[in-house]
Structure to design on (126 residues):
């Protein structure tokens, strides 16, 4: 018999699967990056990473929006920057703080954005 709920009749089947959720997140971020490369050009990822490095040198704390002015292009798919931020974190350029800041972009409707601490910022020189 086909049912929408598990055997306890309390949890909809397929709604709570942490591993699948992570896989879907990773697939979505990969699609966003590929879409950006198609719309902007194959060098999008390199330019985006360079923009993160530039922002990280001049800002102690940043969110995705803080990087956009350094990119030089407006993407049709703005979600493509978050995978770049996560790659920058793995590369030791920035570090997630666990905090969130509200987006000021109208198209983002005030959604929370992950905050990152720069690991390149120099308090004395920057």
């Amino acid at each position: 018999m086909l049912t929408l709920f598990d055997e306890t009749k309390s949890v909809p089947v397929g709604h709570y699967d942490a591993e699948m959720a992570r896989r879907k997140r990773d697939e979505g971020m990969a699609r966003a990056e590929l879409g950006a490369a198609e719309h902007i050009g194959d060098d999008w990822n390199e330019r985006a990473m360079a923009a993160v490095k530039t922002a990280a040198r001049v800002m102690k704390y940043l969110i995705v929006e803080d990087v956009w002015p350094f990119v030089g292009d407006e993407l049709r798919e703005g979600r493509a920057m978050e995978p770049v931020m996560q790659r920058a974190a793995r590369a030791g350029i920035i570090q997630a703080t666990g905090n969130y800041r509200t987006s000021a972009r109208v198209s983002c409707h005030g959604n929370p954005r992950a905050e990152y601490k720069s690991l390149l910022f120099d308090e004395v020189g920057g």
Summary: DSSP finds four helices and three strands in the chain. The CA atoms of residues 21 and 27 lie 10 Å apart.
